[in-house]
């Protein structure tokens, strides 16, 4: 099972909305998915109360219970756990980053968001935790220079998701209806963008699995070489 956490200290960047829409899109693609909401605001937990469908399951829990819940979900055969975190540089957010295999950092194309992400990036770099930014709430229409400037700034700080999400009302309406955007307006642009983020994420996770398998082979080779000498 892969564990993906949405983290940023800045509030309102889209952690909860993207976590939920991505989880729904992942269920629609055939994965068994759970959302773990560690934020006391309980945005995901409240969304689940408005939701008619059972999947993806949402579990609201303190971050200190995350490790044991992840262990249980893994044993139950889940493919993906998506962790929603509080928007602050807190013990909770740090605990979630440590538990995750991969972190996604939603950032709006604003200097304030980019600057606020630096502490999170430092924490992730220090722990060699794989992560990527995802640009969210980008202006639509011809006003793209802010987005391309943000794209360049983020590429200097770390990896950036190829797919970009625009500011679209489907996100707010889906959240209010207990739906993901791919359910709320399946042929809408917001849905296309969320599916593109999911495709990018699945490729990224497959590559990380490959890198991890290579590392294990190297370590096993090292161990047998040192036993032989
Ligand atoms: N791409 C988008 N287009 C339009 N609205 C969006 C988009 N992404 C998020 N929103 C809306 O912005 C608001 C804040 O998003 P959300 O609650 O997901 O942010 P958050 O990072 O989880 O905030 P917090 O740090 O407070 O938990 C919500 O109303 C959400 O629906
Ligand atoms: Mg939130």
How many strand segments?
A: 6
User: How many domains would you count in the coordinates?
Assistant: 1
Cα-based radius of gyration, to the nearest Å: 18 Å
Bound molecules: adenosine-5'-triphosphate, magnesium ion
Which sequence of SSEs, written as H and E, runs from N to C?
EHEHEHEHEHHEHHHH
CATH topology: Rossmann fold
Describe the structure.
The structure is a single chain. The chain is of the alpha/beta class. It has one domain (2-228): Rossmann fold, CATH 3.40.50. The protein has 10 helices and 6 strands; from the N terminus they run E-H-E-H-E-H-E-H-E-H-H-E-H-H-H-H. The chain has a 6-stranded parallel beta sheet with strand order 3-2-4-1-5-6, sandwiched between helices. The radius of gyration is 18 Å and the shape is globular. The termini are far apart. Bound molecules: adenosine-5'-triphosphate (ATP) and magnesium ion. The site of magnesium ion (MG) has 6 residues, from helix 1.
Key attributes of the depicted protein:
229 residues, alpha/beta, Rossmann fold, 6-stranded parallel beta sheet, 6 strands, 13% strand, binds adenosine-5'-triphosphate, binds magnesium ion
Topology:
Blueprint lengths: L1 E5 L8 H14 L4 E5 L5 H8 L6 E4 L5 H10 L4 E5 L6 H9 L2 E6 L3 H6 L1 H9 L4 E5 L9 H13 L11 H9 L3 H4 L4 H40 L1
Parallel strand pairs: 1-4, 1-5, 2-3, 2-4, 5-6
Helix pairs in contact: 1-8, 1-10
The structure holds adenosine-5'-triphosphate (ATP) and magnesium ion.
């Amino acid at each position: 099972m892969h564990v993906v956490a949405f983290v940023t200290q800045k509030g309102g960047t889209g952690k909860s909305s993207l976590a939920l829409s991505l989880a729904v899109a992942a269920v629609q693609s055939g994965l068994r998915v759970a959302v773990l909401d560690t934020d006391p605001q309980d945005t995901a937990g409240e969304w689940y109360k408005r939701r008619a469908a059972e999947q993806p399951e949402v579990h609201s829990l303190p971050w200190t219970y995350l490790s044991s819940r992840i262990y249980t979900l893994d044993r139950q055969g889940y493919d993906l756990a998506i962790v929603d975190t509080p928007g602050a540089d807190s013990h909770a957010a740090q605990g979630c980053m440590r538990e995750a295999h991969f972190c996604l950092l939603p950032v709006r194309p604003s200097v304030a968001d980019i600057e606020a992400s630096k502490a999170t990036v430092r924490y992730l770099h220090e722990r060699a935790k794989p992560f990527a930014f995802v640009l969210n709430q980008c202006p639509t229409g011809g006003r793209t220079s802010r987005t391309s400037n943000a794209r360049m700034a983020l590429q200097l700080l770390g990896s950036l998701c190829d797919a970009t999400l625009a500011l679209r009302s489907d996100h707010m309406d889906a959240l209010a209806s207990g739906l993901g955007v791919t359910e709320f307006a399946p042929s809408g642009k917001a849905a296309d963008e969320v599916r593109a983020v999911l495709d990018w994420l699945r490729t990224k996770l497959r590559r990380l699995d490959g890198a991890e398998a290579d590392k294990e082979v190297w370590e096993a080779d090292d161990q047998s070489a040192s036993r032989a000498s």
